[in-house]
Every structure is written in C-alpha cells, then in structure tokens.
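Duplicate of earlier report; Deferrochelatase input re-posted below.
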Amino acid sequence: MSPTREPGPSRRRFLGGAAAATAGLAVGGAAGFGIREATAAPVAQAATADLGAASVDRAAAVVPFYGSTQAGITTAQQERLMFASLDVTTTDVQELARMLGRWAAMAARFTAGRPVSDSPVRDEQPPFDTGEAEDLGPHSLTITVGFGPSLFDDRFGLADRMPPELTPFGTIPGDAVMKPGLSDGDLCIQACADDPQVVFHAIRNMVRAARGTAVLRWSQLGFGRASATGAGQVTPRNLFGFKDGTNNIHADDVTAVQEQVFVPAAADAGPTAWMAGGSYLVARKIRMEIESWDTDPLTDQERIFGRTKSSGAPLTGGEEFTPIDFAAQADGKPVIDVASHVRLAAPETNGGARLLRRGYNYTDGQDPDTGKLAAGLFFIAFQRDPQTQFKAIQTRLGRSDALNEYIAHIGGGLWACPPGVSGAGDWFGKGLLGDLV
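Output:
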C-alpha cells in the first residue's frame, strides 16, 4: 500500500454517478484541448501536472492513528465510508481481547498506507493481505471502533461496566420500521477515507481477522459526505438537494466538542471509567422517498426544511449561517413552520443539545419490491450522552417532523467508542477488558 503511486480512478470508483462525473470531465477536457491553439499547450500541461501532484498528495495524506481520542470523530470528514456491525461468537474474553489487539495493529498499518503484514508469504498459503488497496495510499483513512449494548450481557461479565448512556433506546418515535437485520451489533467499525476501495479494504480485512471470534452482522457503504465536521468544509447537500447539518457541531469548536462530544473523566465513574475520553456513536439508515419528494413543489420543500434550497439560508432571511428567527411571523403564521425540520432539530428547542454529525449518502440500487431507488442518508452522530442528545432530539422529530412523510429509519444502532489507542501494545477497549485477560 505504498502512497507514492496513484493509479487512474476508473478501476476503483464504484457508485456510478461519481465515476461518470469523473469520466465526463476527463473526456470534455480532452476534446477542448484538441481545438485550442498550440500556444495553450504549456498551460494545459502545467495544469495537468498540478492536478497530478494534488492527486498524489491526496492519496498520501495520513491521519495519525495513535492518540488520546479515536480518529474519525473530530477528523475533517472524508468523502467515503464503509460501516460494519459485528456479533461476537466466542465466549472467551481472552479471544475477544486478542482480536481487538489484532484490529488495533491492523488499523495502525492501514491508516499509514501499509498492508496487513510485510512478512513474506509462501506460495502454498493465502496472502496475509487481500491486496485490493495495494499502491492506493491511505487517502486520510480513519478507523473507529465501538461496543454495542449487547456486548455487556453475561458472556464476559461486563454488565456492571455498561455506562447508563449506552442503555438501548427501545422504540422511539420514528423507529417503528427499523429492521433487525440492519440494526445493532456487539461491535462496530467505521472506516472513512477519500477513496472507496481503501475503506472497503480496511473493513474486509478486519472482518477477515475476526473469523472464529466475531461475524459480520450488516454493513453499509456511503458516498458524498452529508455532513461537515470542520468550519473550513462547505456544508454538503443530502439527496433531497438541501444543505444538511448547518447548525451541528464543527470539530474546531473546541468548547462545544468538550461539552457535547467527549465523555469527561469523573472521580465517581467507578466501573464505567473506561469511557473517559470516548464518545457515543449513533447510526441511522434513513431511507428517502426520492420519487415522492421530487414531485413536491419547491415552496413546500422549503417549508418542510425551514430553509431555502439554493443557499441554505433560513426562511427568515440572511445567509446559511444567519441565526434563525423562530419568532418571526407573516400573515399571523410562523415563518418557520412549527413542524419544520429545522425548528424541531434546533438546539434552541432541545435544551441546547447538539450533535457532531458524520453522515453519508447511500444507494443500494433499486428496491426489488417497489421498483424505486433504494437510497437515502446513512446518519452518524457522536455525542457525550445519547440519551439526552440524540434520543431527545429524535423523539421530537419522530413525533411531528413534516419530513417524516418522505423518510423512514430502517436500521442503525448505538455504540460506545472508547478513548484512542495510545501506542503499539495498546488496543481498542483495553480499559474495559484489560483486567480480565
């Protein structure tokens, strides 16, 4: 996985829209060059050289793996995701710990652009690494691991170590059609990078390394980030065409991150002290009824969101980040509809609760039952306390959000992501399991 060579994009770009767009730009550029005067050649060659250098730099970009917190939470959000949920099959806590140790060692190598092992492979044995990311580079890969509520049953004696924040939500408004086969899991892995094959490679090899200890429960590919985790990132658009997550936490808002994202150390934490420096991940696979949405008039779409579609500005005026005037009225009615998404999700109406989002768009092709596009938002959010943050916000949205006519939560779960891996020899969840092995 040397970061020094970047092959052409066509062999690894899945999700055809991105591939088609890239190919279209390349063809268009070539055709235009053919009719320019010869004097334009040096300029075009210089631009091509700059583009090639930028591509190599992007491929070689490394996000440090070791640290006090796991990467992939406040890291500037990458363009691609693969998320995996696994169920633990062993009842031997030492086996589980060894697997988490293997995962940490592999994640350190993958995020540095290296394969599973540098050891030579004999011809008569399978390769240590599956090989599909060889020569691609790390592409800012981050790997984040979490533990689900179901891991704290009686298999490993962890019941008293489960934080109250990890209590399962039960069925909250909007969750009525959640599918068990797309929900929950003992463990989760979130892999994010700027190349789709890099994230696939990471998940594939970590699941492979779990054989005999854990099995894949469900997974999801994501593309075209649907969140901005840094103030320097442009707010992206969801598949309904609206800017999404304008008022959510940015990772460079240090105060908000400290107050609402990471779990603080507490003298009285007792058996749950292992989560100090960690964060809670909530995921939701949200199906979008795209065809129905596309028949809705623009004014109604904007009323449902509470923002203009083109600029993302609130309907009360200004620009995207202009504070919303929820008291504003026109013709005796609130300008921001009482059932609008932006009003019900706003910190002002949820006791100041905010989330750090890392969502992605997804498509699973065509729904065989309806013939419609199977597409939507794979919502991911990190927070200090999912009971008072996500659950409280989603309860309001699930009860009365006008957007509910066009969306459905069909999968997801809740996981506790422990603090980061400090260095070689440390591993995911050592603070939770270390004294048991």
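The chain has one domain: 80-117+125-436.

Merging into the original ticket.
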